Amino acid sequence: MLVLGIESSCDETGVALYSTDAGGGLLAHALHSQVRMHEDYGGVVPELASRDHVRRLVPLLRQVLADSGCSLAEIGAVAYTQGPGLAGALLVGAAFAEALAASLGVPTLPVHHLEGHLLSPLLSRNPPRFPFVALLVSGGHSQLMRVVGVGEYELMGETLDDAAGEAFDKTAKLLGLGYPGGPALATLAERGRRDEVRLPRPMLKSGDLNFSFSGLKTAVVTRVRELGAVSDQQRADIARGFQDAIVEVLVSKALRAVSESGLQQLVVAGGVGANRELRRQLDAHSATARIAVFYPELEFCTDNGAMIALAGALRTQAGVPAKPAGAFAVRPRWPLTDT
Ligand code: KG4
Ligand code: ZN
Known about the structure:
iron; tRNA N6-adenosine threonylcarbamoyltransferase; 339 residues; 2 domains; Nucleotidyltransferase, domain 5; 5-stranded mixed β-sheet; cytoplasm; alpha/beta; binds zinc ion
């Protein structure tokens, strides 16, 4: 069966075609990022995001059909992100998916966005096998999950306030870097001197697998105030201090989660998974901890349509019934354990 996947939960429009047939897999995927549109505002403007999804969906659908050589008539089901995310942005993708499915006479597969992220490593050339522990670190979420199989996710720990990517973005803003600031802050940190600015490691010794990152941002504000006029080198030192602190906490908790689970595989998903220092530290520790760490390809780390098509396909294969196209609702707030 050919599954069309639609992602529109935030500021990326993603469309993909995934075939469940033998020798199939991901046939094509296309993405439009709205980052440049939101840049001027220092963050995502929900109304602009919704309107841009409207503009992008049809061209992206045409593109994946052309790239895969498939026709609309071959689509057997339409998967789309039902939540969590921005209500208006979700509504655009859901309405598009439901209307298209109704016109084609095929069912729909509403998907949880985080389920897409958790399963995305299965799209890579070197996929992990169930069960594994996933460190999901994006702009909206920071969670440690035990992924037993499709639809079987156990929350091991999560952030009590800001998500890791959100902390990167807010700190980057404080340092005068653009939006989204995570990658820019990471680049600046490469020039920073180790331990020149030592920031707290929030909840490192909390004894559980939860995170808290909002205090780190406050520590940066305080440090910037203390310094008064900040030189370029001092800015880089602060970026380095921030990154070292957040990475140490993420690595320590992720390794602890793997050890507590008794499993040997760790998967890193979500935009912050692109962070080079996080990868360096995880790689360095994984050998001693005797675990294998998996990073999905960058294009599948951040939001994309392929992970939604895959999640829909795997859910049908696992026996979850598809929904008749037509009536629908989106779920802007939706705990993964509630699927
Ligand atoms: O998964 P994602 O694309 O979108 C969400 O679902 O949120 O993650 C985006 C987040 C942003 O906060 C961005 O600043 C962060 O991932 N990010 C990074 C890096 N690349 C992206 N954070 C730190 N270092 C990076 N290299
Ligand atoms: Zn995401």
